[in-house]
Structure formats: structure tokens, C-alpha cells
Amino acid sequence: MIDYYIEGKKKKAGLKQTDTVEKLLKELCMNPETVLVKIGDEIVTKEKKLKGRIEIIPVFSGG
Amino acid sequence: MKCTCGREAVIELKYASRALCRRCFLDWVEKRIGKNIRANALVDTHEKIGVAFSGGKDSALTLHYLVNMSKRVPFEVCAITVDEGIKGYRKESLAVGKKLCRSLGVEQKIVSFKELFGSTLDKLVKNKQERACSFCGVLRRKAINAAALELKVDKVATGHNLDDEAQVVLMNYLRGDSARLARGGAKNEPVYPGLVPRIKPLRTTPEKEALLYCMLKGIEVHNGVCPYAKYAMRNDIRNILDDFELKYPGTKFSVLHGYDRMLPCLKQGFKTESLGACLKCGEPASGKICKVCQVLSGDKIE
Q: Within an 8 Å CB–CB cutoff, is residue A40 touching chain B?
């Protein structure tokens, strides 16, 4: 299991640290076009491994 | 994933078949905004531009970009912020917005629905939340225009991004609203004395890239979602376009470019209607009663 954060909430996903960001978004049924993913302090692309603090940032805001 | 310059990429742009590192990405976004401004002659020297500034990523990027541009080109920038009176949403974004204006040294004018119209949006849409977005749109346009006139600005710059624009095009198609389609574009020319022209510098900037730019530049923005947004038809359109963009990269640009090619014909076919004066308030109106008066009297907007 890995932990990830979205909108300040901590959640869990049934994946390993060796899995990728792409796999995480697929697992969560999230469209990669609608989120940014931060691992540690870096914004990362889809092939990055899930090592470190993972934060999913939804792109949409406002009204 | 590597950028073409060899550094680690922060984003993959499928529509452009490339990945970009932080430095190349910031440059990419700035160049595209600059190109849009030049191609559509959005800003002239010695003008005063009022940025419709909510504190969110799009208006923050618009403000940030224009302030930096005004250091190279002689024109003035100020910020216009509207407090609609939305509990749990607007207060937070106002605080973030004030901070950014202070750090950029920008004059900020805050106008509220309460002071202008005598009521907050929350009160106006009580028990009819599904109409919040159309009510808010009408009143916000009026509020921004009133502030723009008071500040004597030449143009109002809004933070509409590529996603917003593609959504509006599709929405107007689906509603069969050809007249409204004909009023789109990068620049809204004035159709009545007292209406300030509006420009859209971010029209070719995808929403995702506006957010990433702010994050990489360390621009603090308010990321909240308006509690009324879920009632809007736009939500469904956004999902459709995002799904298409994933499957067919470049869809949003295609929607916009296709629309831009049709726009001259649409403008020809739907000549801007001449406005009269509202029988209630005397402000510009396309019918007998202006939309603001319709909203304030609780009527359905025509």
C-alpha cells in the first residue's frame, strides 16, 4: 500500500513504491489531463516511481 | 522523461509531442501569452489595463504576466476584484489576492455585490442554487465594468484560459446560441458607450499549464472551487473535453482554432445588436429590462 494526498486528505492505494504515477492515476480512474502530481518537492511526469510524499493536485479551481 | 534541452521534464505536452523542464516550460508559457497579445493587439502603449482578479491561478497569472510586461512596455496595470459574497469561498481567495497585489505593487479595487446590488450571491440564490452561475455571471460583469469605469481603465483583462474558451464554444453550440458564439474571440469590442472592452491574454494557455506556471514561479494562488460550480452545465462539458483531450491530444486547441476561423463569418452573420437603455435602471440593455435588473428582481434571465 502507498499513501498519497489529495486536497489535504491522506488516502491509500493498493500499489507499490516501484509502481509509476501513470499506474496510480489509472488505479484511481483519474484523467492525467486534470491533475498535476508532486512527489516530494518536484512536479513529476507519468513514468516516475511512487517514492516519497505523493500529492495529487486537481487542476480545476474557481467556478 | 527528459526535456529537449536534456533536463528533467516537469510536464509532458502530448498536443505538442514534447516534454519540458521547468525553465523551458516557463519560457513556453510566456512566449505563447506574448504571441496571443501581439497577434490580437490586446494591449496598446499608455493604456490602463484592469485585470479582473479573483486570486485564482488564471487571473493571478494574467496579473503577473501583465505587470512584468508593463516593465518593458509603457502601460499601466491595476486589479479589480469582486466579492460576490460566497460563504466559505470568496473570503479565502480575497486574502490570497490582496497579498499578491501587495507583492506586485498593484492597485487593487475590491467591489462587492452587497454594496453594489444590496445583497450577497448566497442570499440572491437561496433555494435556486442551480441558477447561481448565470446570476453571478451577469452581476460580476456589471460589477467589473462599474469598477473599470471608476478606475478609468481602457480595457479589462480576464483570466479565461484555453479550457474555458473551448468549453464556451462547445456549450454555445450545444445550446444553439449562435448569437453568443458570434460575440467571442480574444477581444470584445465595445458595443455601447460605458461598456469597457475586455481582453483574454490566456486564451491559448491550457488550464493545467496556468496552474503549473504559478506553482513553479511560486505565485501563491487560491485553489478553492466555488460551491456553486457543481450546478453548472460547464462541468459536463469540461469532463467531455478532458476525456477527448486524453484520447485525442490537441482537441481543445482544435476547438478554439476551428472556432476562430469561423468567427469572422459568425460576426458577419450576427451583427452586434444595438443596445437600448433599460427601462428600470437606464443601463445598456438588449431588451426592455437589462439582465442585472432581471436577476435582482428574481426573474429568469431572457
A: no
Pairwise CA distance, residues B195 & B189, whole Å: 9
CA distance B3 to B49: 35
**Cross-chain residue pair B207–A57, CB shorter than 8 Å:** no
Residues B221-227, mean pLDDT to the nearest whole number: 94
| Distance from C-alpha of B63 to C-alpha of B52, rounded to nearest angstrom | 9
Tell me if A63 and B228 make a contact (CB, 8 A cut-off).
Answer: yes
CA gap B180, A18 in Å, rounded: 51
What nine digits make up the cell of B69?
510586461
Using a cut of 0.90, tell me whether the model's pTM lies above it. Answer: yes
Rounded CA separation A61/A36 (Å): 13
Give start and end residues of each alpha helix (H) in B40-108: 57-69, 90-104
C-alpha cell at B65: 504576466
Residue A62 confidence (pLDDT): 87
Put simply, the answer to whether A43 touches B208 (Cβ < 8 Å) is: no
Please list every residue in chain B whose beta carbon sits closer than 8 Å to the beta carbon of residue A61. 56-57, 211, 221-225
Mean pLDDT in residue range B183-202: 90
**Where is B234: in which H helix or E strand?**
helix B234-247
Longest CA–CA span in chain A (Å) reads 37
Radius of gyration of the CA atoms of chain B, in A: 19
